[in-house]
Amino acid sequence: MVLFAGQGDALRIMRLLWGAADEGVKPGPKPGLTSDDVVEAAIVVADEEGMGALSMRAVAARLGRTAMSLYTYVPGKDELVDLMYDRVMGWLPTSYELDAGWRAAIEAWAADTRRCYLRHPWVLQVSQARPVLGPGGLTAMNTLVGILRTTGLAAPELRAVVTLLTDFVRGAAQTVADARQAARSTGESDADWWAARSAALAELAPDFAERFADVVWIERSAAPVAESAPYLETQVDAMFATALGVLLDGVEARIGE
Amino acid sequence: MVLFAGQGDALRIMRLLWGAADEGVKPGPKPGLTSDDVVEAAIVVADEEGMGALSMRAVAARLGRTAMSLYTYVPGKDELVDLMYDRVMGWLPTSYELDAGWRAAIEAWAADTRRCYLRHPWVLQVSQARPVLGPGGLTAMNTLVGILRTTGLAAPELRAVVTLLTDFVRGAAQTVADARQAARSTGESDADWWAARSAALAELAPDFAERFADVVWIERSAAPVAESAPYLETQVDAMFATALGVLLDGVEARIGE
DNA sequence: TCGATCACTTTACAGCATAAAGAGTCAGGG
DNA sequence: CCCTGACTCTTTATGCTGTAAAGTGATCGA
């Protein structure tokens, strides 16, 4: 992996992100692919087999080429992932109806964004620090800020709300994605997993009910279905909506000031 | 890595998590280490060099042994990470003063939890789906729920608030941890990184100011220091406090019902 | 036609988790 | 007292990973 990206590298990846066209004719054989082809193939691999299966060899195999040939189109794997990220973020809706108010718009934004993360779970593994500064990611950010600006909140508060929203949506999606991934890769359903663990717990911590009384209480009282796995998806969807509601109540309270 | 963990494996890792003592005397040489020694050494490695540098070889080297010898004490790397996680979560405070109200208690909880994540950033890479069911993690969860129960909120809402809080604190800490990690491993400061990117942006997207007007507005208006790197840490700390305030306003609104 | 340039392949390296097999060490049973 | 089985720990090996380095052959401008 790349350990130090100098300034020249910064320009190169930015050029790729922004689709800066190559200038004139050059000697040598014509490229058989474009960097877009590589990005597209990599997204297919990551969607189908997960980020863990995304290797230069796997992407190259899908394109009928060797791993090393990809380095003609893309500086390295890190940069390829950045390009994949920006591409997917570019597929998100870029504007929301505001006639029903900012709250409804944010709810729609959250649902779309969450759906996108669940369709491409590997996106959640791209760090938010030193963000990918491509057109897709910037447009997505612009869309969210655009909705929130209509609340009339001051910029510092609004910025906090932006990170609150994105961190929450990412975290919630991450949990669902991880659960699905675990079920797929271990072949053990959530229910089986839970059954084995709770049996072991009962044996190893007989004082469980008293020692973790509050946890037991919330699990018993909040789960609509007794004996269910903790991450039953319909239950998780409802919880997402509730949590988002609490968050937006907080925003509303700040508007009242 | 382990692909399928059967029921026997579940019992074994749970026994390790709960510190179930081995029974009687056995033939063969005495073990030179305990699984706790391995976990401790692994935490030191991960704290000092990051999760990416956590390998069985590195842990073994610190203990003066070969990588394979660790498999005597721990089923595999995945399970070792679970043990590390539960150990660190067990270091968190287990009760909070409630005389000043639940809100102050949650603020203290959030500060402690965030500090713990920043001291051991690799903890954030442990998935929340199929959580580690050890005493440390369960106690931490119990502490949080215990504070929130004093709000009198109904269990389903309270559960949503729990995930909202944990997802937010984790996400916020993750961003800071990633930024620090990037600075360390690339040798490029945030300021340098930002300078190189914004120069490239100006060249590649001359219409930036109009095309991403809302993003530009919030960056200009919210940052107290002009031309500063986006993730200046004091700025991020303030944003964390503001966002937590908004979140807790939402909880308060729900209590009023 | 020549030399430069580029696409692409082959080979190689260091590092990873861990399976498999072997070496040495210690206990209880004969 | 020795043997057998169990146990710790090491050595070796397998199949992955990203990518550096060098080589092959095609294609262009001069």
TrEMBL record, chains A, B:
The keyword Transcription regulation applies. The keyword DNA repair does not apply. InterPro entries: Homeodomain-like_sf, HTH-type_TetR-like_transc_reg, HTH_TetR, Repressor_TetR_C, Tet_transcr_reg_TetR-rel_C_sf. Residues 32-92 form the HTH tetR-type domain. Gene3D superfamilies: Homeodomain-like, Tetracycline Repressor, domain 2. Keywords: DNA-binding, Transcription, Transcription regulation. Residues 55-74 bind DNA. GO terms for molecular function: DNA-binding transcription factor activity; transcription cis-regulatory region binding. Pfam families: TetR_C_1, TetR_N. GO terms for biological process: negative regulation of DNA-templated transcription. PANTHER family: HTH-TYPE TRANSCRIPTIONAL REGULATOR RUTR (PTHR30055), TRANSCRIPTIONAL REGULATORY PROTEIN (PTHR30055:SF151). This is TetR family transcriptional regulator. It comes from Labedaea rhizosphaerae. The lineage of its organism: Bacteria, Bacillati, Actinomycetota, Actinomycetes, Pseudonocardiales.
